[in-house]
Amino acid sequence: MPRTSGEPGLGPPTAAQIEALFTAANQIFKGTGSHTGALQDFGTVLGFQFSAKGSLEAGTGAGTAAQLAVGSNTQVLTADSTQTTGLKWSNPVNPALQYNDLLGWSFDPAIAGGSGSGQPPAYINLYRIPLPTPITITNLLICTHARAGVLLTHSYLALFKSDGTIVGQTADQSANFMANTYTLTTAALVGGPHAVSPLAANDFVWAALYIGTAGTMPTFQGDLGCNVMNAGVTAARARSGYIGQADTATLVSITPANINLPGSGNDIWMGIS
């Protein structure tokens, strides 16, 4: 009968005696008490080390380790020599443009080639901005162009999630849009700042422009054409789109599948901060 542990006067078991105990691959012989032991699956034994779903066992030095708790949704594991385990969970960094220290924009203003007024009054004009990581948004930005609007009412900038849920809107910008030309407007979202997290991979928000009524629509800094900007997209992921909304002081959530893709015209630059 193979011995399962060293016994006084008998010496330790031989390698052949130990090997004779194993009945399947990936087993180990684990001590269960004084001079006793039992077969255990290696994965089961390793699983004893973890306290929760997603936790990791990370080295802390030669022959030592510590448990690292799981991070938040969408966070990535990052090397950090100042941490005990040399690792930490952190929000991913967007490797694309740094947006002039803004949080994002609908397109690089360096390619702006003219002006656009969006759709006529009573439409929400939507401009997609990438959302690679959870951020807190306080303001929306837009730049009026050469000609100011006339007789505007209910002029708002607004923010929508990719599922169409409205995050918030600004105060009425009618007086501002009628009075100013070639002016960058930074307008705070009412009730902000607002925390916004990605709903899925490759997520985004829509910055929006809405004007309830207008004798003459104002114009804003625009790009080379929204028919080009929308190449390859569907309505629910429109980079530039619009959806009907009757004259109102309070904007509501939208249904992304109902967004219209303009066939021509200029996309309007909008940013978030």
- The number of helical runs is 4
The structural class is mainly beta
Radius of gyration: 30 Å
Report on the biggest sheet: 5 strands, antiparallel
Distance between the termini: 75 Å
The total count of strands amounts to 19
What is the strand content?
A: 25-35%
Placed side by side, the strands forming the largest sheet appear as 13-12-16-9-18
Domain module count: 3
How helix-rich are the residues, as a percent range? Answer: under 10%
Poorly predicted regions are: none
The coarse silhouette is elongated
Encode the helix/strand succession as letters: HEEHEEEEEEEEEEEHEEEEHEE
Kindly summarize this structure in a few lines.
This protein is mostly beta strands. It is 8% helix and 35% strand.
Can you characterise this structure?
The chain has 273 residues and is mainly beta. It has three domains: 1-48, no CATH class; 55-90, no CATH class; 99-272. It is built from four helices and 19 strands. The strands form seven sheets. A five-stranded antiparallel sheet has the order 13-12-16-9-18. The protein has a four-stranded antiparallel sheet with strand order 7-19-11-14, with no helix packed on it. A two-stranded antiparallel sheet has the order 1-2. The model has no long low-confidence stretch (mean pLDDT 83).
